User: Fold this.
Amino acid sequence: MHSKVLGRDIIRGACVLAVAAAFLLAAPSGRAADRVMLKIGDPPPTFSLPDLDGRTVTVPADLRGKAAIVHFWADWCQFCLEEMPALESLYQQYRDKGLVIVAVNVGQSAAAARAYAKRVGISYPVVLDGESRTAKQYGVLGLPRTFFLDRKGLIKYKLLGEASAETLKKLALNTLN
Assistant:
């Protein structure tokens, strides 16, 4: 059991380091002033990205009055593979109560994102951040990265890294209320 947990920690660390390195190499400078530090209660940065059907999704405008989860992911992220079905379950249970999920694919092609969403069985919107600009706006340095937005459009919770299905449900329910 200990070696399995240690192995997961090593994989998690490698994923975080790989994404952080990619963002730092792509950034024009590494100055602290260039890094985004979103806080609880802040409005999220606005973005408009195409979904897998070519429609534009604009956050937070399209989410007004709803509780939302904005989830940053990529198909190489093992923890994303574990979280996304849990998010799908939440979406199916609570979308009629006003829960919206937007999955932001970071740095990959539409074909890769589409294949992954189909394989995992995702029905919530998947948008494409091919140049990773939106991820940078949100200060994403590792995947998965998840933001919970309240009905006023403000950040209520934020998660870096993997969360259990129970944690995701608890935060989603607290965001809905």
In short: The mean pLDDT is 86. The longest strand covers residues 99-106. The chain has five helices and seven strands.
